[in-house]
Amino acid sequence: MRIAAERRTMISKAPLPTLRLRLHPAASPGSPRTALDGAWWPRSADPVAELPALVLALQDHGPIDDHSPITHVLLRVGDWDGRPRRLWIDGPADTRVVRLSWFDSLPAGLLTAIHADGRRVDLLTVPVSTARAEAEAAMEPASHPAGHPHTPGLPAALTISDPRRLDEVRMPAYRRPGHTIVGLSGALDAAAAPALREHLISALRHSARLLILDLSEVASADVTGLAVLAGIQRRAAGLGVTLCLAAPGPQVTALLHVTGLERVLTVQHARDFHTELAA
């Protein structure tokens, strides 16, 4: 369902911000698309201040003979403050108005820019409040050149459907010879991220050499939640601890796949995890 919003053309008077943007190398004509074309970590939730620099950067990233401008950007209502419908873009080569469409049904963290010829650029948008280490951990695989082929499952993988929060449920830890298991449940999302980060940092301090996060009771996740896990893995490596994600469900597995975080995080699927526990 689309949300009605302001129809005025908005003009940003502020200097263009320095972009925190990572993109795949420009693809050659006819090459298969990837699930995501890159990742962007904006400095604020103000679309008028942030989007002009992004649109110009995406335009410059295309082939040198590409003269098809970006004319339309699709955004999720909950990711931004304010909902302008048109944005004035003052670039070095031309000046134009870009149309902005706002949806409350788009997956959290997904932004799509559309060129005049119909080509699209799908970006993972990292929430503004994300800690630097976690933001960088999420952006790296999303912009990896060996990204996964584009799939209709991307929106489903990014969508959050479970209303439970990790800060409302227990996260029990069990220490066994050689490894520690922490059980997580609920939703690994932006609302749960602060409690999740604090709990896992504490678990790291008392962990054996192998820390297993049991995700079998986690019904859903978003990019912020997985970015916390990627940040915890970096901390674990510095302490000489190996981090393993065990038994993720279908939605979490799909999100690990489309964001490329499965290349960064060690994942053990349910059958192997339960067989090892029973041994």
TrEMBL record:
<feature type="domain" description="STAS">
    <location>
        <begin position="169"/>
        <end position="279"/>
    </location>
</feature>
<protein>
    <recommendedName>
        <fullName>Anti-sigma factor antagonist</fullName>
    </recommendedName>
</protein>
<dbReference type="Pfam" id="PF01740">
    <property type="entry name" value="STAS"/>
</dbReference>
<comment type="similarity">
    <text>Belongs to the anti-sigma-factor antagonist family.</text>
</comment>
<dbReference type="InterPro" id="IPR003658">
    <property type="entry name" value="Anti-sigma_ant"/>
</dbReference>
<dbReference type="GO" id="GO:0043856">
    <property type="term" value="F:anti-sigma factor antagonist activity"/>
</dbReference>
<dbReference type="Pfam" id="PF19457">
    <property type="entry name" value="DUF5994"/>
</dbReference>
<dbReference type="InterPro" id="IPR002645">
    <property type="entry name" value="STAS_dom"/>
</dbReference>
<dbReference type="InterPro" id="IPR046036">
    <property type="entry name" value="DUF5994"/>
</dbReference>
<dbReference type="InterPro" id="IPR036513">
    <property type="entry name" value="STAS_dom_sf"/>
</dbReference>
